[in-house]
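User: two proteins, same treatment. go.

Assistant:
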Amino acid sequence: MKKLTYLLITALTLNSCYLFRENGIEVEIENNSAAPIYDVKFTTSEKLNSVDFAAISTNERVSDFLRMSENKIDGSYVLEFTRENGEKEISKAGYYTNGGSLDSRVVFKIEKDTVFASTSQY
């Protein structure tokens, strides 16, 4: 009985990080292009909250956490930015449901002429 109690307490402790984590997703943006990017905005398709960066230099990597406490429906993550030549880009990635993130992290890698995105859980 003591072993069962110990296992139950251990399982609850390990799962508490997941159960009580704040609703949202960590975003990492890596600029691998040959020029800086500007007016960088990461948000959800509901556009209720955003993470903003004025500029990301060449070979720079930035990260932040997007809080999604107000999100209520299904949607995707959206990255918007402007390239040095003034061209605006919009890239969508991942999926959330009922306002809750299914993943812990989304990574955007900005290249010369494309954007790669991947999602993961810790």
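Protein 2:
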Amino acid sequence: MPIEIRELVIKATVNNPNPQAEETVQPPAAQGGGAKTDLDGIVSQCVEQVLDIIQNKKER
């Protein structure tokens, strides 16, 4: 019996093991939009992989 996923929520927590490095980290707003570009790239790769999986399942 197939399962349909209507919504997928992924949460992640990143811990910095080095407290001194925390001072050098800039918030995403101060990075000049670089974080948005990285996020868009990750999302597009995820979408591509999901579409590949769906296509592979249809071929079976």
